[in-house]
Automatic annotation (TrEMBL):
SUPFAM superfamilies: NAD(P)-binding Rossmann-fold domains. The keyword Coiled coil does not apply. Coiled coil: none annotated. GO terms for molecular function: oxidoreductase activity, acting on the CH-OH group of donors, NAD or NADP as acceptor. Keywords: Oxidoreductase. Transmembrane segments: none annotated. Belongs to the short-chain dehydrogenases/reductases (SDR) family. Residues 7-209 form the Ketoreductase domain. This is SDR family oxidoreductase. The keyword Oxidoreductase applies.
């Protein structure tokens, strides 16, 4: 029921985790893909997986992108628009997380600023660069975190940045309506490389606290993203969808 034939989708953080799973799902649904990550090498596993699905190279544009660089974001969006005549959906998965980074009292200004620069400023740069290239009836989906709603000891910078992502999305939803819908998914603990350190140290304790009694899979987050980008969510904007197995119900 979700059909992306004739649609162009840009995905950041597409080298792994939720971004890679979303790329594979939307390729199967017919989308043309603009895939970005910090380096070309980081995109190789996703491109290999897509090739194994039978992806045609003319439906995929893979570009390195540091979302902290506003000019680089503008360049990538311009290249994507030139290749595919503008964008139907922007999905922002890029971000960083450091397990047990430190208590607020002990964080350096540099640690704090890095979390905000990548996880919040990068989101702003990408969205700002995308706006001139969005087609009518387009969608933006930003990836936040359960930490934005619950807070997270030892990860205040990450939680603050992801809270900011939600605030940015709500503001964009108001500014870009009615042409573009803007929504957020807020994952809990998903089986990705980003979460691997937490799983290694506290896996059973964390799992026991999740009502569904398991970690999420990237494909489960990707399916919600696909819904939010599709016509099936045509009357949904400014919302944050929790994908966390019940870790936070708000």
């Amino acid at each position: 029921m979700i059909d992306f034939h004739g649609k162009t989708v840009l995905i950041t953080g597409a080298g792994g985790g939720i971004g890679a799973a979303t790329a594979q799902l939307l390729h199967q649904a017919g989308a043309q893909l603009v895939l970005t990550d910090l380096s070309a090498e980081m995109l190789e596993p996703t491109l290999q997986a897509l090739a194994e699905q039978g992806a045609s190279p003319d439906r995929i544009l893979a570009l390195p992108l540091d979302v902290c660089d506003a000019e680089a974001c503008a360049s990538v969006l311009a290249q994507a628009a030139a290749r595919f005549s503008d964008i139907d959906s922007v999905i922002h998965c890029a971000g960083i997380y450091i397990y047990r980074e430190g208590m607020v009292a002990d964080l350096s200004a540099a640690q704090w600023q890095r979390m905000l620069r990548v996880n919040l400023d990068g989101c702003f740069h990408l969205c700002q660069a995308a706006i001139p290239h969005l087609r009518p009836n387009s969608a933006i989906v930003l990836v936040a975190s359960v930490a934005a709603s619950r807070g997270s000891a030892m990860h205040a910078g990450y939680a603050a940045a992801k809270s900011g992502v939600i605030g940015l999305a709500k503001s964009l939803a108001l500014e870009l309506a009615p042409s573009t819908r803007v929504n957020v998914i807020s994952p809990g603990l998903i089986n990705t490389a980003m979460a691997s350190a937490m799983v290694a140290h506290r896996g059973d304790a964390v799992k026991d606290a999740i009502p569904l009694q398991r970690f999420g899979e990237p494909e489960e987050a990707a399916s919600v993203i696909a819904f939010l980008c599709s016509g099936m969510a045509s009357y949904v904007t400014g919302e944050t969808i929790n994908v966390n197995g019940g870790m936070y119900i708000g």
